[in-house]
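Researcher: For the annotation table, I need structure tokens for Ferredoxin. Please keep the output clean. Sequence:
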Amino acid sequence: MKVASIGCTDYNYGQVKEKVVQTISLLGGIEEFVSSGDTVLLKPNLLSPHQPKLGITTHPAVVKAVIELVKDAGGEVKVGESSGGMMINHSLTQQAFKETGIKEVCQDLGVELINFDRVETKIMTSGQGEEIPLPKVLLEADVVISLPKIKTHSLTLFTGAIKNLYGCIPGAKKAEYHKLYPNPRDFAGLVVDLFSLIKPQLTIMDGIVGLEGNGPGTTGDRCEVGTILAGSDLVAVDTVAASYLGYGADEVPITSIANQQDLGTNDLDNIEILGDFKRPEREYKLPSNALLNLLPNWLLGSVFNSFLSSPKIMQEECVQCKRCLHSCPQKVIVEKNDKLKIELDDCIKCLCCQELCPKEAIVVTEHKLVQLIKQVKKFWS
Ligand code: SF4
Ligand code: SF4
């Protein structure tokens, strides 16, 4: 299996366009994936309303370059997304379109930008028997291209081409699945099921700047990686990208499960990496929960969630926007004496609140076991 990875150091549009073209050329060119007249649905990662410079959302320069490439091949392009988070009567998707710069790109290039929260859906049944509503416009596209951002993720440890597809599920339904699948490994299984229902033909990843530490939102740390990756095997592309951040092949549950289900390969020995990119000689910070990978499965089984990091609101940073309160699937964020508090007894530690907070006001508190593992690791290193 081939994964293309070309070095790209910044978001200067001329450079991004050239590098995207080079990356796809290594896979045989865009014509390998798009025929003239095809409807092509692009799915960027627009997690929530953030400016491109924060490294949280797929950069508009990358989206623009891919739109132009697909148009040149004769494809009819549409861009679609359902961002995370809810307010009282509406989602944050429209706001995300604007703040991430994607609305402007689509307007300039005359491309339809689709809010997946407002379109007709079709219920698809996943391998686990879960009924997942998906936008008809996505299911009817001739070609789907996932355009993720390279990032660490507190719950799933890594988010790339496959996890990006979670934003195809409209609105509040996304939060409901967190409630139904509170165990991170079960949740990863659901994401893989979703992937098997959509099966994009191609992914082109914005790996120029991403997040390390406790991503995928504002509490992650912006980091430069310096590459654009692409491939038709999304499991392979995610595995290579995750390895750049420091993960071993089986350390990311989503790619590990997808590999077990023959949806792609996470075997780095069987992945041919094409292109000139050299991984920076540095260590990236992984999320606190990644340390739980060091423990044997039998120890984690049914008590896994109790070891996960917990969210905590930093009152001095909180601007009372209430995104967290309206988005929490468990409704355990409550207002008391003009302050927001998390009732941890019923918190499932999905960290959606942390992911969506615009002000880095929700931090994670590591479980004592994780703190102990850290100390032991430090002692032995
Ligand atoms: S903690 Fe963050 S998301 Fe919640 S109200 Fe405060 S600023 Fe908004
Ligand atoms: S408080 Fe945060 S981590 Fe806990 S259930 Fe709600 S959104 Fe998830």
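Researcher: And a one-line annotation?
Model: The pocket of iron/sulfur cluster (ligand 1) is lined by residues 313, 318-324, 340, 357, 359, 361-362 (CB under 6 Å).
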